[in-house]
């Protein structure tokens, strides 16, 4: 699996939290019976951003968390708590089925667009076997809208979306098709599903995040079309100039996805 730095995760966290559907998250928590301790599994947890967001949404004092990630250095940054356990595991092969057992909720943030449909089908089956509700936030949906517009915006976004579908360590990545695939896989396992928009809306003062996104998109586009490197570099330079001048607005499309087993609908 491709790694993410702690600095990048910290930079994106405010945008992540602002974008997420609090109504959908609350609906998933409200759908879980509360007779026993709430046991939550957070996949690809990084430094604990999903934990921080969801503990602000649901303040159940008896919640028990298991945070799993392949990067021990990131997990080491999760604040110590008697209610939080971390485990360093490579989730790409899903050989660790025991982590799903007895979970009330299985959750992840910014993960599904990196995984394959084969991997996602296996996760859906394990969540269903555990009887867990699910909440997967911030899956990229293929939309990038930049203002002021540039003639190369569309072609660069198309290349970025092609790059998103390359193997990120879990097989051919779903990329922009992630939420649609998740709805299909979980519905096939008996889940009632709900989706909600969770777009990043980045104003001109989000200069550092915008700049890193633009650099990353240009690099991804050039990997797909190296013969167009000069054109892509020009696009990057113009977009960064807009950022530096305080003119740049960027919207990055995401969706949140939630599901519960049974006949009840999630209501948000």
Structure annotation, total helices: 9
The CATH superfamily of the domain at 6-142 and 169-199 and 254-261 turns out to be: Vaccinia Virus protein VP39
Tell me the CATH topology of the domain at 6-142 and 169-199 and 254-261.
Rossmann fold
Give a quick account of the main beta sheet: strands, pairing sense, barrel closure.
Answer: 8 strands, mixed
- Rg from C-alpha positions? 19 Å
Shape, principal axes of CA atoms: globular
Q: Pick out the low-confidence regions.
A: none
What's the CATH architecture name of the domain at 6-142 and 169-199 and 254-261?
A: 3-Layer(aba) Sandwich
> Taking all residues together, what is the mean pLDDT?
94
| Strand segment count | 8
Task: Give a short summary of the structure.
The protein has about 270 residues and is an alpha/beta fold.
Structural overview:
- This protein has a domain at 6-142 and 169-199 and 254-261: Vaccinia Virus protein VP39 (Rossmann fold), CATH 3.40.50.
- 40% of the residues lie in helices and 22% in strands.
- It has 9 helices and 8 strands.
- The chain has helices at 6-19, 22-30, 49-57, 72-75, 117-130, 153-164, 178-187, 207-224, 229-245; strands spanning 39-43, 64-69, 84-88, 105-109, 133-147, 191-197, 200-202, 249-261.
- Strands 1, 2, 3, 4, 5, 6, 7 and 8 form an 8-stranded mixed beta sheet that branches.
- The two termini are 33 Å apart.
- The mean pLDDT is 94.
Topology:
Layout: H1 6-19, H2 22-30, E1 39-43, H3 49-57, E2 64-69, H4 72-75, E3 84-88, E4 105-109, H5 117-130, E5 133-147, H6 153-164, H7 178-187, E6 191-197, E7 200-202, H8 207-224, H9 229-245, E8 249-261
Parallel strand pairs: 1-2, 1-4, 2-3, 4-5
Antiparallel strand pairs: 5-8, 6-8, 7-8
Helix pairs in contact: 5-7, 6-8, 8-9
